[in-house]
Amino acid sequence: MKRLIKSLATIWRLARPYFFSEDRRAGRILLGAVILIELSIVTINVLLNQWNNRFYTALQERDWNAFVYELLFFCVLAAAYIMLAVYQLYLNQWLQIRWRRWMTAYYLDHWLAAANHYRMQLLGDAADNPDQRIAEDINLFIERTLTLSVGLLSAIVTLSSFVAILWTLSASAPFQLFGTTFVIPGYLVWAALLYALVGTTFTHLIGWPLVSLNFRQQRFEADFRFNLVRVRENSEQIALLAGEPAECERLLSRFGRIVENWLLIMKRTKRLTFLTAGYSQASVVFPFIVISPAYFAGTVQLGGLMQTASAFNSVQTALSFFVTAYRQLAEWRAVIARLDGFNINVEKAQLAAKTKPVIEVVPKDTQRVAIDDLLVELPHGRLLVAARDIAVSKGESVLVTGPSGSGKSTLFRAIAGTWPFGAGSVNVPRGARLMTLPQRPYFPVDTLRAAVTYPAEPGTFSTEQLRQVICAIGLPALAERLDEEAHWNRMLSLGEQQRLGIARAILQSPDYLFLDEATASLDEPAEAELYRLLAERLPGTTIVSIGHRSTLSAFHERGLSLVREGDHYRVRDARDAVLEAAL
Question: What residues form DSSP beta bridges with 542?
Fold first, then answer.
């Protein structure tokens, strides 16, 4: 019962936001229409149950007029049922796509907001494969939620409607055994309840492991797909290292987990299917076995027998909802667990950026980026970099140096506001635009025009502007391919990608530009040319670079170095180091 209450609370937590969102009116109307149609279908089933009595009685009594009338009545009910069934499916699918559209946008917004996706990775979140959770699990959650909730509602309404009918029929056809009549009020209801209770108990005992097995299957499938994508994304490096056999072995190993888990699902499903199939077949004849003594004793006619069998079957089907839907319920619970885990990790990553102590980026009325007593830590709490009273004024050019692994890139992330782990503050000019170029640029799979201007809106820059800046960075051959769509991270060398990254910075024209070894893949003359281009095109931009080449000093007025101090590194101003040496 505790697990049931917890599951219902989780389902409500996942489903509630949509029905209280800006699309709530349409969602509620569609859901209400689906429910109303389901209630109408149950009403038709009740009318068909009564029709069974009249139709088979007309057959038994060879009443032609009654037979024809009942056939016409059945046609009317059948036509209404078909119409309702068609529109119930149509409206259900309409509600699914609206709900999925809203839920997908909601999850993407929370996952991608303010570098939250990045913090989730840094925290080592348990929400593996967020792409699958957003693309597949949301769809499965909505589909299963509507199917199972409407099915459960139908079972409850059917049960309440047919129990009264079955109870009445129990009185008109008392239980017969070896010629003896036993007066048991509502015995047909108790027989249906007992039959369903036995079936549900055995189904749960056999099928409950399917929940965890389905959860694992979804995770293994997503891991396999993710690694296939990684091979495709890194095909050049794999080919150069002749790593195909190793990748094949690794992929087959991951696929082996899928096969192994699938075999466990097969075994468990086989046992469950034996039970459910047998249960379903037995349910066809079970009501006749219960009521047939009364029929052969002459206390009930053929019509009453058929009506009783129909009502019994309806009650038994309603009571057996969990038996027939158990596999779907198992898959549904696995999906719910995955979405809930994703939400928990999104919230945990959001809290990591707000729960103090935390690195804060504070806008102030100033003309410089200032660091006050900053402690940059790793996600598990170990101190990496300490910086005190460091400032970069507007228009300066600063070169940051230090050993590999000393935390230079992490310091940049802290200044950019994507690394909250630590304490202290970074004061930035209010309204200033900061831009960071990493060593490996990112380009969306889109036209070259969209890739270069990312993340600006399409149309922000004219074709002439784009062609001119692409030629200026030394890639004139690409200037005529602006409308070509491709996977540019795969098509271009890292040096070409870094050139386009510089083009992106020139177009965006930020107030502060942080270059994290953003030209390291270029030769020294090409690197020098790009730095001269930045100085020419962005005269008012403050440029802060991370680099290891001594030639970069010529393009920077000032230096910051990271020096080891115990078990961490400290940021020192090169001018202070020179002064200390002189003293």
Answer: 512
Q: Rounded distance, CA 36 to CA 30, Å? A: 10
pTM for the full model?
Answer: 0.74
- State the span(s) of the chain assigned CATH 1.20.1560.10: 99-352
Q: Which residue do the tokens 């909730």 mark?
A: 149
**CA dist., res. 500 & res. 453, Å (int):** 10
How many angstroms separate the CA atoms of 130 and 136, rounded? 10
pLDDT digits (tens, 9 = 90+) for 401-442: 999 889 999 999 999 888 889 999 999 999 899 999 999 999
Using CB atoms within 10 A of its CB, is residue 65 exposed (0-12), middle (13-18) or buried (19+)?
A: exposed
Domain with CATH 3.40.50.300 in the chain: 360-582
Q: How is domain 360-582 classified at the architecture level of CATH?
A: 3-Layer(aba) Sandwich (3.40)
User: What dotted CATH number matches 99-352?
Assistant: 1.20.1560.10
| 155-207 tens-digit pLDDT | 888 877 777 777 777 766 666 665 566 667 777 778 777 877 887 788 878 87
Q: What one-letter code names the amino acid at 174? A: P
The number of beta carbons lying within 10 Å of the beta carbon of residue 507 is: 17
Check: CB of residue 514 under 8 Å from CB of residue 437: yes
